[in-house]
Amino acid sequence: MHSITQIWVYLAEQPLLWLTVTVGVYWLCQQLYRAGGEFPLLNPVLISVTILVVLLAATGTPYQEYFDGAQFISFLLGPATVALAVPLAGEAATLKRLWLPITVALTVGSLTAILSALGIGWMLGLKGQMLLSMLPKSVTTPIAMGISDQIGGIPSLTAVFVILTGIAGAAIGIPLLQSLGLRDPVAKGFALGVGSHGIGTARAFEHSDKAGAFSGLAMGLNGALTAILVPLIVWLFGL
Prior knowledge:
Elements: H1 2-13, H2 17-35, H3 44-59, H4 63-82, H5 85-89, H6 92-97, H7 99-123, H8 128-134, H9 141-151, H10 155-179, H11 185-207, H12 209-236
């Protein structure tokens, strides 16, 4: 409670320029995305991140200064993640009915995410810490950074790979899955959660509540499974 009180005191006393800019830029990008018929390359996360990076570079603003102003968004990330359990609770019957396909899809998806990262890294000539940092790219940032640190990767570099993976999944995930003939929101949501963690889950909720609920489930389960599989794969391949 003391930490929460400190945050509220800070918010009451400090000018929140970058918080306002971040929310405003994302809102504008969301309107652009809808006006463009939800064209994948107009994904609001992709465009808003690009605009904010350009603004920070153009104004010479250090990232820490930006974060000090916009950290309330980061503070809300924890409650928002926990709240993902609320829509999933309403899907308990579906979850019980589909537990076996979900288990198989989770295992195959998690292995595919890790092994594809390994294959792409090898093709790009990555070795050592660079390659290890790429392996947990498909799980949410805190878990990915922890895995990276444990296997000898570079956590900050892993965070970059995670963000790029999430943005790519959010931008092209739904159109790609639909082009493959997937119409079931459970399947689409679960695939987004396994492949592109939190950013993909946000996109899944835009598609439907059911897709978002199962995307949130996939994000959590994939984080736990990847934490087990990545060290095993590192050991098996002698990385």
